[in-house]
Amino acid sequence: MHGTPRRRLTVVSGPSGVGKSSVVGRLRKRNPDIYFSVSVTTRPPRPGEVDGEHYHFVDHATFDRMVVGGELLEHAQFAGNWYGTPREPVERALAEGRPAVLEIELQGARQVRAAMPEARLVMLMPPSWDELVDRLTARGTEHKAAVEARLAEAERELAAAGEFDARVVNTDVREAANQLLDFMRHDCE
Ligand code: 5GP
Q: 15 CA distance to ligand 1 centroid (A)?
């Protein structure tokens, strides 16, 4: 394989509640050429989440097997659950010359950066801390302790914003998705 297809790998991180799924979802709808990774997780599905579409929902034994078997490009524990990116579909997309997007948290983003220095990292930021607290609380899908765990992680994630190649403030989903796409176009072509 010639060229540097790995340059086409974009990692989108940002605190839980910042709207990563909405922004990435908008990008997905409008750009069928981009490959969007589907992670594996030990977290139970939220209402409305579909296995194989939002995540591959697996038990701990399966997750451990995938880690040991080297099947994950990166993996991390987040707020009590495990998450990881299946390696093969991402590598296949990149080999086919398709841009690929991973929506993952900070520890995973750092692992991708170490393994694939050509990857580009974007952090999605909330307009303000208070706005993030409001969004996470309003979502209503997590219990109080889980919201607090996510806010603690959020503080750590935002403190690492300087490590990223770009930062996009999510004031408006459409605008943030456009900025992300601009960044990918600029960076990937
Ligand atoms: P949630 O439980 O809200 O769906 O996801 C929690 C956090 O885990 C989010 O920040 C999400 O981006 C991140 N995440 C989702 N999939 C992966 C993955 O495969 N690897 C890593 N490191 N983080 C992930």
A: 10
